[in-house]
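Hi,

I'm pasting everything inline rather than attaching a file, because the server keeps stripping attachments. The sequence lines come first, and each chain or strand is labelled.
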Amino acid sequence: MRFMLLRRLVISALLAVSLTASSCQQGIEPAGSQKQAEPRGERVVGTRGGSLTYRVISPPKTFNYLMASDVDSLLVSFLLIGGRLVELDHDTQRYVPGVAEAWKLAGDERTLELTLRDGVRFSDGHPLTADDVLFTFRAIYDERMASPVFRDAMSIGGRRIDVFVVDANHLRLVFPEPVAVPESYLSNVAVLPRHALGEDLNQGTLREAYNMASDPRRVVTAGAFMVQSVSPGNRVTLERNPHYWKRDQAGTPLPYLDSLVIDVVGDPNSAFTRLEQNTLDIVDRIRPTDYAALYKREGAVRAFDLGPGLTTDHLWFNLNEVGRGGDPKVDSVKRAWFGDLRFRRAVSHLIDRDSIASATLQGLATPLHGFVSPGNRAWAANDLPRIDYDLERGRTLLGEAGFIARGTPDAPELYDAKGNRIEFTLLVPVESQARTMMAAVIQEDLTRVGIRMQVAPVENGELIRRTVQSYDYDAVLSGVSVTEPDPSSYVNFLLSNSPLHQWHPKQAKPASDWEARIDEMLTAQARETDTERRRAVFRDIQLILAEQLPVIPISARHVTTAANVRVGNNRPSMLFPHSLWNAEELFVR
Amino acid sequence: MSKPTGRYQAMNGSPYMKDVRDKQPSHQRSHRGWSYVRRRAKSAAGLGIIGLLYVVAAFADFLAPYDYRVQFRREPLAPPTTIHVRDARNNVYRSPFVYARRLVDPFEHRYLEDTRRAYSVRLFARGYSYKLLGLFTSDRHLFGVHSDGRPDAPRVHLLGTDALGRDRLSRLLIASRFSLVTGPLAALFASAVGTLLGCVAGYAGRTIDTVMMRTADIMMALPTLVLMLAARAAFPLELPPRRAMILLITIFVTIGWAEVARLARGQVMTLRRSGFVSAAEALGLSPMRVLFRHILPNAARPLIVQVSLMLPAFLLAETGLSFLGVGLQEPEASWGNMLAAASDITLLRLHPFLLLTPAFAIFLFVLGACLFSDGMLRRSKT
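And the predicted assembly:
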């Protein structure tokens, strides 16, 4: 079973990216129409030179990608300065060769022959060989490193990938079990320089290597950029790696830019103002209001609505068992309501998704009917049953489940058969203005049938603690965020024993038949090499979740970005890292 | 030394004092008279503003045209409704009216009026039910749109709507209740606690004084925001209005008593050496009687000034906490959480006046409190 790179990133995605994303509130889908065409123009040959400034929300904390645990550190240490074996082409959403020129999976679906590109060098001019790749795998699996993201991401059922050097340019990788998409593992490997870090690994000091206080000149990289200077907490300046292997169609060495400045601008107001003042060139995930202010403007700054991203918003109820872990935080009365499928269906029918997407989120969102965003065009099932807003249907389902409406038509009150008033608290990440607004809409929607829902904005850390550790909550409005569209990215969310199985994590054995079935299907799709069959299996998983509604889908917010017109080859993607996925091709007009 | 008040001040009104004032040059007398009028006018204006705001808060349900929690989702971030007296064909109507409108651009929040039908705006219109002053049930509101029972009838939003389509004027009016009760109540409790502890410390002296004042020093040295967040963590996640009010009052009393206590202690220590205190003690009055009957009345004026300065400070603090999400939670309204919408600079550029209406209300209250305290301060100096 595959635990992708963003196991941790998925954590921060579920709970943190959703924050960063939401603190910057993407937003609104204008009644299905995109206001500005996606800037997906043809790739053009650029000119070398110049500098661009990109905004991040929080300062990168390390240049050692194995120690990175937040989005901005991963952006710099892994995606910008890391030379990855395999890369993802965001245009085609397919894996393409990186430092590895070719690879072939043998018939046993476990053994992979890997060929490295000829003549690849690190930023200090040292050749990159198979020994460096082997060294990187050693570093990933080293117990002393305890890489917060990559150790789990590169483990398959808790077991490692064995790596054997065939010669300077060839390796053999043996996976502990058959894999459907070996590229998803290869794309998690950015090759580290053995000559620069070998001693650190041997002495157990690799964790501290390449930190923000390191001499930038000693940070040897194989990616498009290398570190020029660091202003702690404020700015990281990257410069062109003169030995980067990639070239454009005209044969010009990439990257085009002399330097790429990563500026830390936490406040979205400051980011917007600086964008207007042309002191920032690219800002990803701008707020809906910023998009609204920019989308019609003909000035130097252009905003782009890239459509629904892979991040989704959904609501789930606490379906943990009562008295779990010796600490009976789960309320048995409420657990009985939440465990009733008719109650969950009723709640789903009572939420006015269209209104949330079109009005509350200003149209920069798409109503959601499954757990996969429609932005995941390759894998989202299009034939899932729609969950229409239907007050009467909601009332009927509640009645069938034994709930009784009292009070007046203007102020109804809902009770269960034992006379308990139906009320619960919805936790929502305080950092996410979009989700806070959604919660307010849902609150009013549920009031119409007499369900009293309190909204409690909590900090992300507290949200994680309650949902993953103490189970002390009623319901949560959060979502799933993945950085790659492949079904394997959703494994941690779907697998019943995973800590990210939001509604009932870390199950010793599947709590329900349908969860057991999903576990089996996940195993099957992970081994399935035929894309169509994988798609069919993944569709069935989506169908099961749409029927059982352990999470009640609400919306998929759009990814909106803004950039100065002087940024050449600006072809942002709705996948992370949005505008910088082709950083080596960006140039100054 | 402060001038004695109470029974010792009685001589101010005596014929002797009148003689002294009569012997002053006339230009001095007129100057003092003008100064007196100005002081009084300031205090009266301050009290008038504050009083008006409290009247508004008391009758907020009547003044508010709509339920402050109800979302009109077809009208997010709508500008103020245009009230017409002349229709599209130039016909003049007897009563003002509004047209229905629909959202045509969700980004620019542009609405288009449907001029086919006019809906009159009436005084004392029927609307949602509420309890006036908590006593009488009523559904009359100061104004509203006569809808003829049509569910799709337009609404009149004099200050527009917020991002969820809620009437901004109604929220502003209802918000005044929370904001105007929490701050003053906290100031009252903080000053009561601070005065009591300060008086005891100043009068008892020695160990009690040292312990109490060092405690006050510690409280004043603690970072206020950290203290507030720690206090918030002690409360449950759900914060209904009453609990939010208790939370904020607890926070404000915890951080506010120390300053009053220091002032009260200083006053008491100064007055304690006065002749009238020695006289009272020589007559054999108990320490409590000396303290609360003779010393405290003479220290009252500076303390009142301190409290009146604390009022706007606590109101602003409440606003700040609600702004940060620590105070009242949605869908309840306070001036602070309403003002949070103004933190988006792009939105603020589009609707500066509308987003800053809570700030204007806060300004009014602070102005009233400052005028009042200024008047009091000058009185206490003379």
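The domain at 312-557 of chain A is CATH 3.10.105.10 (Dipeptide-binding Protein; domain 3).

If the labels don't parse on your end, tell me and I'll reformat.
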